[in-house]
Specification:
Elements (H helix, E strand, L loop, with lengths): L3 E4 L5 H11 L3 E4 L3 E5 L12 E4 L3 H5 L11 E5 L1 H9 L3 E6 L3 H10 L5 E6 L10 E12 L12 E4 L2 H13 L8 E4 L2 H7 L5 E3 L6 H12 L1
Helix pairs in contact: 5-6
Length: 222
């Protein structure tokens, strides 16, 4: 395998993904573009909700002691890592979606959920409306300066959010690197659109869980 795979997601997920790449003989470039921290939050009334919607494991990692009030609620989670974090925290996971937050909300509605609480990041895809009765910010991710962006040259970059796509484009352009020498493996079409054009390739796997993204990146790196 001749090309490095740039892992852009924040810690602690960055180390997990990088280790999975290295376990398969790949070269991981550990370059988190954001740092996640908790945001203070308070919710007084919990009885009106009949489900909890989670689109990132960061809501569990950074939600703090306030999460305990919602363990009675079934969890609708985007992605296996989010679902596993919820289970480890003592929640019952009713549904794991692999095709985005909006599709997950539709599945929750089909299951007769009528008043869901979404614990989310400051930048998010879902807002209040329909069955999403309330959205509360429990964490935020701040851009950080990457170490030695020159290592991105010639790499395959794992783009796991639209924000990461836009941030990657900024960093590559500021460093004077050629987009045409960098391939993208992205979690969604929205993420590739945020990165803009000019890249060597832009690949969105049919299945967008972590393993599928790594599979696609390793195929391009070979």
């Amino acid at each position: 395998m001749s090309r490095g795979i740039a892992v852009l997601r924040p810690e602690p997920g960055n180390c997990v993904t990088a280790a999975a790449i290295e376990a398969r003989g790949g070269i991981a470039i550990r370059m988190p573009l954001f740092e996640v921290h908790p945001e203070p939050w308070i919710l007084g009334h919990t009885e009106k909700f009949d489900a909890l919607i989670l689109t990132s494991a960061n809501a569990i990692r950074h939600g703090g002691p306030g999460l305990a009030a919602f363990r009675r609620l079934p969890v609708y989670a985007v992605g296996a890592p989010t679902a596993e974090a919820a289970r480890q925290a003592g929640f019952d996971v009713a549904c794991v979606g692999t095709d985005g937050a909006e599709a997950l909300v539709a599945r929750a509605g089909a299951a007769r959920i009528r008043s869901a609480l979404h614990l989310a990041g400051r930048e998010r895809m879902l807002e209040e409306g329909g069955i999403v009765a309330q959205v509360i910010t429990v964490y935020a991710s701040e851009p950080i300066a990457p170490r030695d962006p020159a290592h991105l040259a010639g790499s395959v970059a794992l783009v796991q959010s639209a924000r990461a796509g836009a941030r990657l484009a900024e960093i590559v352009d500021a460093a004077g690197l050629a987009r045409s020498g960098i391939a993208l493996v992205a979690v969604s079409a929205r993420a590739t659109e945020a990165a803009g054009g000019g890249w060597e390739q832009r690949v969105v796997p049919d299945d967008v869980d972590s393993e599928a993204l790594i599979d696609a990146a390793i195929a391009l790196a070979d």
